[in-house]
Amino acid sequence: MFSRKRIKTKYAGVYFVDGVSASGKSEKIYFIRYRKDGRMVEEKAGRQFANDMTPARAAG
Question: What is the pLDDT of residues 19-31, one digit of tens each?
Fold first, then answer.
């Protein structure tokens, strides 16, 4: 799905990739992975600056 390297956080199922914001600054993009009805689901949780996202908020 991604060509960028995923980096784990200390929270289970939460990881991030390095991206670029609209202003051109480096920004972390957080993703979560979980199982629903026995299938693995992966979805974007938010961006570090645009959505004020942290690994703890993504885990919640």
Answer: 888 888 899 999 9
Q: Where are the domains of the chain?
A: 7-59
Burial 34-47 (b: 16+ CB within 10 A, else e): eeeeeeeeeeebbb
51-59 average pLDDT score: 91
The residue type of 14 is V
Answer yes or no: pTM beyond 0.70. yes
Strands (E), 1-60: 7-8, 14-20, 26-36, 39-47
